[in-house]
Write a structure and sequence with these properties.
about 260 residues, alpha/beta, Rossmann fold, six-stranded mixed β-sheet, four-stranded antiparallel β-sheet, 9 helices, about 25% strand, binds adenosine-5'-triphosphate, ABC_transporter-like_CS, transmembrane transporter activity, ABC transporter ATP-binding protein, transport, ABC_transporter-like_ATP-bd
Length: about 260
């Protein structure tokens, strides 16, 4: 198996002394090329930290993070910026489209900014895959949330990245639009050979992945190949007896 991204013995410590938080505590994991991996775990278990460090948006306190063969800890900020632009695609919960640009301009913007314009044939194919051909000249405000997130997925894929990192990509969508966006990520992986890594609280979303990783207290505690929503839900219930995504009540949090 080739890893598109990998962390080895990854640790991330925030603060020091009494306020020290070990957000990651010795995590080692490969994200296989042409695979779709979901990261789950209770709130505060380190999911976002793992994704951000694996994607070069944040740095590890110790351990190694690689995209392909490139060790991220050895890179300058400028080199990291270039690597993210050239080799990584991002999808966020809140779409992050540029409101003044059309759908087509949003999709090609990162490529245009990089000075290496997107391959028109690839963009053409993507537009069909995400089903936005009749919306190409619309602005984001003229689209539904699900359509906007499909634009964000197309933008993430426009530069043929090694890995697409998606942080709660369906968090703001109804279940039908969410299923469309997840279907797209799945097609990007299984039909277009891309690699996707997704943080989610939703067992139904996680079931679209090839494998689910479970974090708890900054550690990798379990993994589930070929997940189903039911099995993921059961596994999540085993954490602390809480349903996934459950928020602590004010009484539980304390003063
Ligand atoms: N910038 C920061 N400074 C201090 N502590 C932080 C910072 N970012 C995250 N943490 C802490 O690190 C731990 C892991 O946070 P992280 O956001 O990775 O968890 P998560 O699993 O993504 O949570 P959620 O599901 O609630 O989004 C938490 O205890 C969090 O409070």
């Amino acid at each position: 198996m080739t890893a598109a991204a990998r962390v080895v013995d990854a640790a991330k410590v925030y603060g020091s002394g009494e306020t020290e938080v070990r957000a990651l505590d010795g995590v080692s994991v490969d994200f296989p090329a042409a695979g779709f991996t979901a990261i789950m775990g209770p709130s505060g278990s380190g999911k976002s930290t793992l994704m951000h460090c694996a994607a070069g948006l944040d740095t590890l306190t110790s351990g190694s993070a690689r995209i392909g063969d490139v060790e991220l800890s050895g890179l300058t900020d400028k080199q990291l910026t270039v690597l993210r632009r050239e080799r990584i695609g991002f999808v966020f919960q809140s779409f992050n489209l540029v409101p003044t640009l059309t759908v087509r301009e949003n999709i090609t913007l990162p490529r245009d900014l990089s000075g290496r314009p997107a391959d028109p044939e690839w963009i053409d194919a993507l537009v069909d895959v995400v089903g936005l051909r009749d919306r190409l000249h619309h602005r984001p405000s003229e689209l539904s949330g699900g359509q906007q997130q499909r634009v964000a997925v197309a933008r993430a894929l426009a530069g043929r990245p090694d890995v697409v990192f998606a942080d709660e990509p369906t968090g703001n969508l109804d279940s039908r639009s969410g299923a469309e966006v997840l279907g797209l990520l799945g097609r990007a992986v299984h039909e277009m050979g891309r690699t996707a890594v997704m943080v989610t609280h939703d067992p139904v979303a996680a079931a679209h992945a090839d494998e689910v990783l479970f974090l708890a207290d900054g550690r990798l505690v379990d993994r589930m190949p070929e997940p189903t929503a039911e099995r993921v839900l059961d596994r999540m219930k085993a954490f602390d007896g809480r349903a996934p995504g459950a928020r602590r009540t004010p009484q539980e949090v304390g003063p």
